[in-house]
Write a structure and sequence with these properties.
By secondary structure, the protein is mainly α. About 80% of the residues lie in helices and about 0% in strands. It has 18 helices and no strands. It is globular, with a radius of gyration of 21 Å.
Length: about 425
C-alpha cells in the first residue's frame, strides 16, 4: 500500500494531530526552561547557590524519569487523548505553583509535580505517530513533533526573558501555567484516538500496514514486563541516556554557561542562547526525514533508525569537545549549534525507533522505557555539571564529561540493538502474521 492511498480524512487528522503535538511540545519545553532562564534572578531572590541550583534543576528530571515507566503503560491502556490532556493539566498547575514558592524546598516540590505531569508527553507522541501514520510516514512525523522540543527551547529563551523583565519571574511561571491549562482543554475537546473514529477498512489497512496482525490493542502487565528481557530495549535505554545527558547540559546550563564562562550579559543570553536550539529544530526534522529516506531505499526499519542515531551521537561528542576547549566565543557557539543539530537527529531517530522496535500495543511502553533511560541521564546532567563547575570553576571538564558519555552511549546503541521485539503470540509459537 502506497502513501498516496491516504484518504483526505486521515490526512486531516494527521495534520491536526501534529499541530497539537507541536503546540504541546513547544509549551512543554518552554515550561521546562523557565527555571533555567530565570536562574540568576531566582538564585539572587531565594539565596540559592550554584550547587543547589543544580539540584533544583534536577528535581524535575528525576521525577520525570521515574514517572516514565508507569506513564507508558497508562498511555497504552487509556490512550493518548486522555493522557496528553491530563499530563498537560498537571504540569500547568505545577507551573502556577512555581510562581508562588517561598523557598528552596517548596520549589523542589513544584518541580517534582512538573516532572510527573510532563512524563506522559513524548511517549504519547510516539503512540500517536504509530496510531495515525503509515509505517513509511512515521520517521518524518516523529521528526516534526520532536522538533517542538528544540523549537520550544529556542523560543523560550527570548520569550521568557522578555516576559521575566516585564512582569517578574514569578508571574512568568503563572502566565505559562494558565496557557497550558487552556491548551489542555482544547486538545481534549478536539483530538481523538483511532478507536474513537469510524474508520473504514482501507483507512485501517493504511494505518496498520506492516504491523503484526492479531495483536491486542491494550497492553497487559506481562506485555510490559517482557520488554525488559530484550537487548534492544536496553540498547534504546543506553543510547538515549547519552543523548539526553548532553542535551540537558545545554538545556539546563546554556544561559548560565554564557553568563559565567563566556561573560555574556543576561539580556544577550536571550538572543545568543536561542541560536543553537534553532539548529536543533532543523536537526529534528532532518533526522525524521533521513529515517524515512533510508527506509524507502531498502534499509531495514531498525537500521534506518540505528545508524543515524549512533553516528550523530559520535559527532556530537567531537563538537562538544571543541566547544569546551576553544577560547573563541564565536566558535563555541558554532560548535554548540552543530551539537544541538546532531543531538536532535539522534533524538528523532531514537523516537522513530519506538514505533518499529516493539508491537503496536507496547509502543508507548517501550518509548517510555527509552525515555526513562534518557532522563536518568538528563537528571544527572544538571547536578553533575553544577558540582563540576562549582569544584573546578569552569564548564570545560563538564562538557568533556558529556562528550565521553555520548561516545559510550553510541557504542552501546550499535552493539545492543538488533531485532525488533516480537509480540507475545510470536514468542508462544503462534505467528501473528498468519503465515
Amino acid at each position: 500500500m502506497s502513501i498516496s492511498s491516504i484518504t483526505p480524512r486521515v490526512r486531516r487528522i494527521q495534520i491536526v494531530a501534529l499541530v497539537f503535538l507541536i503546540a504541546a511540545g513547544v509549551l512543554n519545553y518552554i515550561d521546562r526552561a523557565t527555571l533555567a532562564v530565570a536562574n540568576p534572578l531566582i538564585r539572587q531572590d531565594l539565596g540559592i547557590d550554584v550547587g543547589e541550583m543544580g539540584l533544583l534543576l534536577s528535581a524535575f528530571l528525576w521525577a520525570y524519569a521515574l514517572a516514565q515507566l508507569p506513564a507508558g503503560a497508562l498511555i497504552d491502556r487509556l490512550g493518548p487523548r486522555v493522557m496528553l490532556a491530563a499530563g498537560m493539566s498537571l504540569w500547568s498547575v505545577a507551573q502556577v505553583l512555581g510562581g508562588l514558592v517561598l523557598g528552596f524546598w517548596q520549589f523542589i516540590g513544584a518541580r517534582v509535580v512538573l516532572g510527573l505531569g510532563e512524563a506522559p508527553h513524548f511517549p504519547t507522541c510516539a503512540r500517536v505517530a504509530r496510531d495515525w501514520f503509515n509505517v513509511r510516514q512515521r520517521g518524518t512525523a516523529t521528526g516534526i513533533w520532536n522538533c517542538a522540543s528544540s523549537l520550544g527551547t529556542a523560543v523560550a529563551v527570548p520569550i521568557l526573558t522578555g516576559l521575566m523583565f516585564l512582569v517578574g519571574w514569578r508571574w512568568m511561571f503563572i502566565v505559562m501555567g494558565l496557557a497550558g491549562l487552556l491548551l489542555a482543554f482544547v486538545v481534549y475537546s478536539v483530538f481523538r484516538n483511532p478507536t474513537e473514529v469510524d474508520l473504514d477498512a482501507d483507512e485501517r489497512a493504511f494505518l496498520t500496514e506492516g504491523d503484526e496482525e492479531g495483536v491486542k490493542s491494550s497492553v497487559s502487565w506481562d506485555d510490559w514486563k517482557r520488554l525488559f528481557a530484550y537487548r534492544t530495549t536496553w540498547g534504546m535505554i543506553a543510547g538515549f541516556f547519552g543523548t539526553i545527558y548532553v542535551l540537558w547540559i545545554y538545556t539546563a546550563w546554556l544561559p548560565g554557561y554564557l553568563e559565567m564562562e563566556r561573560h555574556f550579559t543576561i539580556s544577550n543570553t536571550g538572543i545568543v542562547g536561542a541560536i543553537p536550539f534553532i539548529f536543533g529544530v532543523v536537526g529534528s526534522v532532518c533526522g525524521g526525514w533521513l529515517v524515512d529516506l533510508l527506509a524507502r531505499n531498502g534499509v531495514s526499519p531498525m537500521n534506518a533508525r540505528k545508524y543515524p542515531m549512533a553516528a550523530s551521537l559520535l559527532l556530537t561528542a567531537v563538537f562538544t569537545a571543541v566547544a569546551a576547549e576553544t577560547p573563541s566565543d564565536t566558535l563555541a557557539i558554532v560548535c554548540i549549534s552543530i551539537s544541538l543539530f546532531l543531538l536532535y537527529i539522534s533524538s528523532s531517530a531514537a523516537w522513530a525507533m519506538a514505533s518499529v522496535a516493539a508491537p503496536a500495543n507496547t509502543t508507548a511502553s517501550i518509548g517510555s522505557m527509552q525515555n526513562f533511560g534518557g532522563y536518568v541521564g538528563g537528571a544527572l546532567a544538571p547536578t553533575v555539571t553544577g558540582f563540576i563547575v562549582k569544584a573546578s570553576g569552569s564548564f570545560v571538564p563538564a562538557l568533556l564529561t558529556g562528550a565521553v558519555i555520548a561516545v559510550v552511549a553510541a557504542v552501546l546503541y550499535v552493539v545492543l540493538i538488533d531485532q525488533a521485539i516480537p509480540s507475545t503470540d510470536m514468542v508462544r509459537g503462534q505467528p501473528a502474521y498468519g503465515a
